[in-house]
Each structure stands twice: as C-alpha cells, then as structure tokens.
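Record type: monomer structure entry
Structure origin: computed from sequence
Chain ID: A
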Amino acid sequence: MEWSCREGCQVWLQVNEQLLPSRVASIADGVVRFTTDYGEEFSFEQSPLSLELAVPMHQTSIEGVDDMSNLADLHESSVLYNLYLRYRQDKIYTNIGSILTAVNPYKYIESLYSASMVELYSGHQLGELPPHIFAIANECYGCLWKRQDSQCVLISGETGAGKTENTKLLLQFLSVMSQKSLGASAHEKSTHVEQAILESSPVMEAFGNAKTVYNNNSSRFGKFIQLHFSENGNIHGGSIVDYLLEKNRVVRQNPAERNFHIFYALLAGMELPQKEVLGLAGPMEFRYLQQWDGAPGQCLEDKQLFEKVMGALLVLGFTADDIQDVLKLLSAVLQLGNIEFVTAGGAQIVNKEALTALSDLLGLDAAQLAEVLTHRSMILRGEEISTPLTTEQAADSRDSLSMALYSQCFSWIIRKINNKIRGKDDFRSISILDIFGFENFEINRFEQFSINFANEKLQEYFNKHIFSLEQLEYNREGVSWEAIDWMDNAECLDLIEKKLGLLSLINEESRFPKGTDFTLLEKLHSQHTSNSFYVKPRVSDCQFGIRHYAGEVMYDVHGFLEKNRDTFRDDILNLLKDSRLDFIYDLFERVYSWNNGDDTLKMGTQRRKPTVSSQFRDSLHSLMATLSLSNPFFIRCIKPNTQKVAARFDQGVVLNQLHYSGILETVKIRRAGFPVRRPFPEFYLRYKMLLKDQKVPEDWKSRCLVLLAQCDGCDSLWRMGKTKVFLKEALEQQLEKGRAAERTRAAVTLQANIRGHRARMHYRTFLTSLVVIQKNYRAHLWRQRFLRLRWAALMLQKHWRGQLARRLVWQLLQHRWHEEERRTRQVQSKTPVQDEGPESDEGNSSSWLKISEGPLSSEQTSRGSRQTEELMDLAQAENKQIEEIVRLENEIQRLQNQQGSSCESVYSPSQSEAESQRQEEILRLENEASRVTQEFLELLNFEGLDGCGQSLPGEASGLDTSSTVQEEHEGPVVTLPGTNDRQMPISSCSQDSVYVNLPLSSEREVRLISPDYTTEGRPGGEGIYNTVLGSPNADIDEEPIYCLPPEVESDYDHDEMDEPAAGEAAGSQDGLRPSQSVETYSRGSDLAVDSEEEFDLQVDTDEELGTGQSTKHLISGNPYFHSYLYMKGGLMNPWRRRWFVLKDGTVMWFRAKQEALKSGWLYKKGGGLSTLSRRNWKRRWFVLRGSRLLYFENDAEDRLKGSIDVRGARAIVDNVEKENALDVVTSERTYHIVAESPEDASDWFRVLSGVHSATQQELREMRHELANPKNAVGTVDVGLIDSTCASDNPDRPNSFLIITANRVIHCNADSPEVMHHWITLLQRPKGHVNGQEFIIRGWLHKEVASRGRMASLKLRKRWFLLNTNSLDYYKSPEHSGSKLGTLVLNSLCSVILPSDDATFRQTGYWHLVVHGRKHSYRLYTTLLHEAMRWATAIQNVIDNKVPIETPTQQLIREIKVSRGHR
C-alpha cells in the first residue's frame, strides 16, 4: 500500500510473533529498511510487504496517553510502548482507569513530590491532572465521604519496583491533608500522630530493610499500616502490623547481599567513645557482616541513616535509656556472631574476651552463658541432665540466640510505635499494604516460599475485584457484556494451602521428631508430581518447584523444617529471663518454650505450638478479610531493569511483569467495562443539583435516565442496570466536576449573604460603640469643666470668707482700742465714766478690743463679744479633738504593726487568742476614731458666723485697697491681755486663734476641700487637718495648700472599698468611710456607666450568697462505703477527723472528703463598682464539684461567693489575648478567669473542657476516681487486717479498732450504725478476687533460681495470693494481671519458718521456704512478723488438707500389717 511505503511512517512491525514500534527509515532498490524505537534494524523486500507485517500505528500510540484504557491499539506491545515513551520523558506514572502503574526511575526527579504538587493535586478530581500517586491518595481520601466506607491501597510488584517509596509518599500526602483539614480544632490539627507515622518509616526501614541482589532497600518484612480518620478529616490514630521478618538474614546472607541496614548505620554513625564502650569496630571485624563482599560505594549513606534513626526514635517517644538498651542489644548480636567453638570433649568457646563482653551487654553471667551455648540441659523425671554439644550444634545455638534477640527487639519497637500512634477509631480508616514483592533468586529458601505465597494471595484478591466480581455484577444487573479471559491462580493456591497441600505436608513433617528436609521432599514428590503447577526437577535431589503466576520458581529444602519449627531451647530462654537488665527480661517475659514450662503433661495432651507457616497463613487470611471490607485502590509497581540503573528500559523485563500482573487484561476490562456503579437513589441524590429546576418523574430509574441524558446524550459512557447505574470513569469525573462547580456557586452565594450580614452587624456595633464613646467623652469633658468651675468657686469663697473674717477681727480690735483709750482718759481725768457695753472688763473677755472707726452700739458690741468667745472655745475644743484623733490613729497603727509581725510567727492557741484581742482593740479604736472625727466635722459648721459677717456695717466692706494690702502684708499691732500690753502682729494672732475657726458652709464643703482624707492620717496627702489648719509657720497672706479634686479613678486599695476591714465595717453609720470622700464626684459620673463590661461589673458583685455557708455537692455513686471517722494511730496521738473510704479492697483515709474534681487559687474578674479593670481581679479559691464550679473567699471554703454550671455553659474558651486566661461563657454572662501559671491554666482548661463535654457516665467515672490512693493520708489493704472489733473506750462511744500485723488504728464513728457497718465490712477473714476466695494476699520477694555455677541472690517483687488450694503469684495486683506461677498445697507440703538471723544480717530480709511436691518457693520480706504471718497462714492451709499416703508410707504400713499377722 502507498501509505506503508513513505519514509518516516510509524508502524507496528511484526517480528517473531511480536509487534515492535518501528519507523520506515528508507526505501531503496525494492528494499524497505525499518528502525525500531528500541534500537534494532530490520530490512524487508518491498513486494511481499503486507498489512499483516507492518500495521500502521494509531496517533494515540505515537503520542502516548495518560490513561492506557484510551489506547486505540490495544495489545501488549502498545501498552509496553506507551510506558516506554512516558519513561523517557520522566513520566513514571500512568493510569488504567483508577489503577495506577508506577515505573521505578532509579533516580530523583526534581519537583515531582514538592509541597506545590501536594497542594495542586489536593484540589482536583482524579483524571483532571496527569497521573500521579498524589491523585490516587487524594481520591482515596475523598472516598471516605463519597463512598461512605473505609479505603485501602494495595501496592504490589517485584522486589526493587519501588513499593516502599510509594508507601512513604502516600503517608506524606495523607499527613498533609490531615493537618489542613477544614473543621478540625486547633488541638486536633496539632496532633502528634502524623509526625509519628512519618518518623516511623526510617526506623522500620533501618531495622527491617536490607540490600538484596535486585534492590538496595528491599523490605524484608511486610507491613500493613492503618490510619484512623475523624469525621473532620484529620488522623486520630493508627496501627502497624508486621508480617514475617526475615530474621535468618541476621546470621547469614546470600552472595552480594547485606545484613539489615541498622548494623552498618550503627558502626558508621556512632562516635568513637561510644563504640569503645560497646566494644564495636569496623564491619569487617564481625562475622555476621563479613559475608557481604560488595564495594563500599554501593552501600547507603549509613551515617546519615543513623542520625535520622536516632532523631526519629526521640520523636516517637523513646527515652535515652530505651535507645541505649537497643544499641547494647545490637552490639551484643554482633559480638555473639564472633564467638567460635572448638572440639575438646564437646564444643568449647575459644575467645573468652568476646564472651565476657557479650555477657556484660546482655546482663548475664559469663559462666552460665558459656554453659547454655555448649551444653543442652533437659529435665527428665525431675532431674536436670546436661549433654555437651558438637561445634555445629553450638553454632546453631549461637545463631538461634542472635535471631531471637533481634526479632524480639524488632517486635518491641513495633509495639512502642503503636503505643505512640494509637488513637480513636470512631469513623473510617485508610489502610496501606506494603508487603514483600515476588522473589526469584538463584537459591530460594523457606523465606522466598512464604513471600511468594503472600503474593499469590494478593494476586487472587486483585483478580477477584478486577475480573471476577465485576463480570458477575454485569451479569446480575443484566448489562450486556462480552466476557474477558484472564489468568486465574486459584489452582496454584490450592496446591499450596488446601488439604494435603504443600503447607500441610510441611507442618506435618515439622511435628515428627525424626522428620528431615529430605523426608519432606520425598513426601512432596510423591503427593504432587501429577499437579501441573508442581515442578519435580530431573537432576537436583534437594529442590522442588512451583509455577506461580509470575513464573516458575525452584526452592531449596535445606532448613525448611528448622525454620518452620522456630524452636528455642528452654535453657536459653530461662537464662535470658534471669538477665540483670530489665530490657532483656521484658523482651522475653511473654515468650513461652515449646512445652510451656510444664514437665508433667503427658504425650498426646500437650498443646502444640503453632508453626511459622501456619501463623503466617492465618495472618494472611485475617488480612484478606480486612481488605474485603474496604474499597480497594491498586498501585502496580514495575521494575524497568534488573541492574538498578536509571534511564534503562529493558523491554523483556517489563513485558514479563506486564504479562503475569494482568496489566493487559486490566486495560481491556477498564476500556470495555463500567467500573463505577451506584444505586439509583444514591446516584440521583448526589447529582440532582445538576438538573436545577427541571421537572423529574416519580420513580428513581426515570430520574436517573433524565439526569444521564442531560449529561451524556449517547449511552456510550453509561448503562442502566436493574438497581444500579453503571458509569465509565470519564463520565463520573465529568459529573463530579459539574457537582463541584454547583456546590462552589452555592457556597459563594451563601458566603456573600453571610458576609453581608456580618458587615451590617459590624457596622451597627461600630455605630453603637461610637455613640457610647462620644457620650462618655462628652460626659467626661463636661465633668472636667464642672470640677474646674467648682474648684474656682471654692477658691473664691475661701478668699472672700477670709477677707470678711479679717475685717471683723480688725473692727473688734479697733473697738477694744477705743475702749482702752476712753477708760485711760477717764482715769486720768478722775471723772466717772459709765460703760456703754453691757459686759464689764472682768466678765467678758472680748471687752479689751478697741474699734478705731467709731463706737458701735451696745447690742452690736455684745453680739461681737459673744461670737468672739464662741470662736475661742471652739478653737480649744477642736485642738482637743485633733489631738485625740491623732492619738487614736497612732495607737491603731501600732496595733496593726504588731498584727503584721504576729503573722510571721508560728501558729499556736495563745497567739490566736492574742490576735483576737488585738483585732477587738483595733475595732474599738477605729470606732472611737470615727466618732471623734464625726464630732470634729460637726464643729466645723459656722452658719451663725456667716450671718454675723453679713450684718456688718456697710463701711466695713468699703475699705480702700491700700489698707487691705497693709493688712495682708504687715497687719495692725494689737495688745493682748495678760501680756503686759505686749504688742504683736495680727497675722500671728489670727494664725493661732482666729484663722482656724473660719466659717464654712457645710460638712460637705470640708470634704470637697480635702479629698485625700484617710482614717489613718499618715502622709500621702496633707489630710483634712493639715488642709484646714495650715502650716504652723505660715502667715495669713500665704495661700494654704489646696489641691485640685482628684479623678475618680484614684490609686486606692480596692479591697478596702469593696470589703472594708473589721473596724470600719463595725463602725456606726455616722462614721466617715474613706470611700465617702469621693461621694460628690462619683455621683457626677454615674451616668457614664453604659457599656456592657461596666454593666457586667455591676451585676457581678462577688458578694456572699445566702448565709455564707458553703454549698456541698455530694458525689453521685458510692465506691463501696465511705464516711467521716475520728482516728488516731497510737495512744499518744490526738484524735483527728478523717474521711474513710473502702474501695477495691483497700481502706483509705483523707484529710477531707474527696468530692472535688479539682481545686485551686484563681483570679476572677468581677466585684465592686469600680471601673478600673485591674481592681476587679480578685483571688478566689475555686472548687469543681461534679458539674458545678464554686468559688470561695478562702481555701477554708466557709464563705461561698458564687457558682457556675460548667455543663450548662455555652463554651469553655482558651483566652489567647491574656496570659494564662480562660473564659467560661454562660447564657447570662462571661466569667473571666486567670491562673497563676501556664501549667495550672492548661490543667484547668483540660478539666473544665472534659466536664463540659462529658456524659453522665463519664462524670460518674470521674467521681469514682476521686478516691485515689495517691492522694490518701494512709491506706490499709483489707487482706492485711487481722481483726476488727468494737472498743470499750468510755470517753469515745461508737469506737472500734482495726488491728493489723504492725499497728492498731483507733476509730470513732458518729453513730452506732456506722460503727457496726464498718466492723461488718472489715471483719471478713477472707476475700474474693475474680470470684475466687482468698485467705491472705500481699507483696513478697521471690528468689529466682540461678542455674550457673556462680549462684547469687536474685529477687523479684511479686503479688502473692493464698487460697485454700494453692499459693499463686502475679506480676501486679491488677485484675487484668496474668498469673506467673502456682504452687499447689497438700498435706505433703511443708513450711520452714523464718528463724535464720544470719540471712537477715547479710541481706536485710527475713525468708521463709514453702516446699511443694516438685517445686519450692523461697520468699523474702523485710518484716519478721510479716514473714511469720504468711508462714502461719500457709501452714494452716496445709494442716487442713486430707493426708496423702506416699508409696513409701504404704510399703511401711503393709510391712507392719504382715508382721502383725505373723
């Protein structure tokens, strides 16, 4: 044909029944030359060239496609060529519908897994972007809600195909999605689970991966990772299950392979001092690492791996001691491999230095370790028999010990990781299976057999989901379908696991003592030679083969039975359990020997230990059951070449993987089938939003037809079944995209309306706040103006009144002068002069004044004289009052100082009485000071003097300016009586006797002048006395110290105003409080209290409720019995009231009733009328009882201030704006609380949040935990109580005694009923544990037997329980604790009483020995009476047993009987 002869055309060239992608290179001389894309050249004659030989290539094959179900040329070559094209472009991912194929690039591709790629794929549906593992992870994450079930991802492929790396990428993407999930709280977003899961990968790789022939980082164990998600989308927890660790690799490896990574990382990353301590050197110094003969450049970056592992262990919660123990164990494994044996009457250890170092690392005795490595110990008929081993047997013992140590350490690490990531499992999960790939080495052993068996099971699961179930679904729903042939591996699985299959024969032969690998091979050949999937080699006498789905594999039977048995000798196990290191003991504590430690079991009744293959088969079946409950996603990993090099695509290797993995069949069924299927109601309800306002029929099927017709007119992408809609993935992606667009449009509309509403509400709030601010600012502005005007008015009044007073004094003095002059003239002229005034010189002290401006009338003179006398008397009274007030205040200050110093002394009853008397004296003095102060203020009312001033003649106000200035600066000269007519200035006179009595309008004006008045009169302001009196050295013309009225928010002690001291509170109503000094100012600002915060402050007065008695909330649910009792521990000790609780067989007593979930000091905002926020914080004692949060004035809990219903609150908020603060939001108000430390705040927030969200059952559990023995003053186990009886104490009726082995407790109840009830509960001589009656129980130390020649005393603390039949001991007293041992008691047993003082002097322990039939217990305790109590109780049990006649006693009895007959 013409098109096939043009140069440059791309065709499929058929060569040896294989289609090769080729290009026409040239056409010359009737010969067509083809060049394949794989680098091969072929030449054909042009004449016979036909369409069968050169098939034109479709455009989809030329360009390549993202989804191989869209290929027009559908055959193996097109699939292979599509992968080849994408691999050359570094596009390693390709889709087959929802199935992903990943080709290992063996190199790092930049920006393929960056954070931007995670962000990109997290916002798109599957198929919208190029294929990527993040697209599968995002689809899997979204299907948690889309499909409403759990999801699983199965990663399969050969070893070296990249399964482990893809698993880490899935975990990385899911961790990011968890952290950015919408709707999750801040605590949930910051969970440690994501980080712990990511950090577990390097740890498991280091301990479980190794370098093999085909893979530098091959997983030598399988793992099943399960992530539990919450409904919000964040990871709550997880778990890791490991499968079949290849522990045989520890002791031997195949050629060109390495041991586990951790050994090389340990030697490369550890510092030299640490290596010297652990006895480590280079890798070639250890026999277990010498088997790798590869070049050093081919290994991983071991030093970086060690640093990464150490950091990951710290993140996972491993302590420094845990890490050191693990490093010591790894060093011990390496040291153990260096132990060598020689034959000298049996195997003997050559290098004793390695043995000593090994015993120190494992905490074992060197002699005992050498004995178990070179001898086998068995117990036969109660006797221990030791048999020497050959050098081969000793080497096997050494290797088995190494493998056991490493495998137990690996299992311990997995358990620690699971404890770290364990969380809630209340929604759905995503599971990731990363299991070993199909393996076919030069020598395949038992491990490869198990690995390939697991891959056969996974291939069966893949075939069942992709082919079998899908075609069955089409037939059941009546969808037209053309069946597709696929490779079924059911017969191969039948060969392996069915009855009389390979596993059954291996397990059967493993149980025969004389079974060998060659007898096993003979049975396999004879049973399965006729099976088409079984291969019997013609030449080899130690191999058999299986035709797996991935190809034929030959297995070497050497070691099959030994590895399947996984035997571990009892003497080695017992030696490890006797280790001095707790870490080694914990590793092997739950490891049981083959006969489970019971030598008395008969053959046939012994429980068989499961073999390795049976355990692995059961775990695989459990795994398949878990996967069948989830929606699967498949990732097929492909290895491009076997040399592990980049940019090399080996067509044969890839084609073989495509063939046995069923990729071509998968492409066909995905292309022809409809993998998405949904029931009619579910499909319509999910996509009905796409119909918008269209009318739809009644039935579900018709609705779905209308919806599908709108989205896809032709039915090429969908089919209608009987109950479901079948869709192709392209149509589902189209529907999902349309649904997302509609939801986005609806969400935008909702957001627009909500944001508009919030903006309007914000504007209204802002406007209201603005009005409030303006109102308060204006009030403050006008108030300041008013205060300034009032102060100015007061100053004017002061000066005006002073001027009036000085004028009056001047007039009185002038009158006195005129009178004196007149009398002097009369005396000189000897003419009798009749007095014009009504009062004589002797009777009136004011008659000596002389007025210079003319005589006054007698009535005015008399009135002036009386006023002058009143002024003088008032001045004297005021001076006395002031002196009395100052004296009382000094006395109050002295007593308060004594009170402060007394608080620092140690409390005693006499000091308490003195303190009470001191408080009463302070109260009396303060009352007296208040009374005196009130009397003084009453004396300051001079309304009459104002009237006198106003009635002065008009000429008094008409003084000229010059005279006024003279009066103010110089003052007239006056003559006082009694001073020999000595003259003095008026300024001095007025300062002492006149100016102090200036008239004031009212008592209220006095307060306005001196707002800084305090009852104590101490400096800090001049005080009312200093303000009125002035300075003693000041002249009249000097201005007294007057201050502007202070602001209302002055710096005073808030507690004094809100809660006055005892003296002030007890004062009369007439007394003057400090808070009253600002009464006038506070009234002016009352109108400004308008904001919600100030209203809240006024409502929350923080005053006492009721009568001040504390409201007690009883705990619902009685643990067993509890009440208050008075107790004393001895005759000399005083009686104390304690709260006794009987719970879980233990009597506990506390100082107070344990009814509070939490209590402590907190600062609470609220109380008083002050507007200063810092004055409204008060320190209160908070107590959480049940669901009520009570707060008291002090920790005595005698004055309840208020309570909060925590469960009824709207929210418990962690206030981030204020340090250590939290808010309790109720329907009435918001309580602001501040703790003293961040830890206390976090603890309160946790407890309050727990109570707020707790159910009634959870609250009951919280209350049940209140009686915690850790908080008790003392405890007594009921089993340790010897007797309980009533007491005959005449002073204390209702008393009883609790008698134990080492003390007597005197108790006194409130009533006879309570006393008898306690006696009834505690008087039981026996108890019950898990339904079993016991006599006595408690802690004892049990001696651990030493098997070696160098015996030393080793004790372990155990919980012993004695019943009527046996003496049992446990590791802990918990109900869930497992029983560690039992000694059956009968009449043949005996007890040796503790009487050896030498043992006590040497060890500090008293010991007793209990001899049984075959075992003896040596028990130790520090107390002699405790040992005697146990010995007596055990002897009583033995004495009550029916006598047993031994064979010796029976023989003696028969001899006696026979002699008697003779």
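Annotation 1: The first strand starts at residue 10 and ends at 15.
Annotation 2: The chain has 44 helices and 49 strands.
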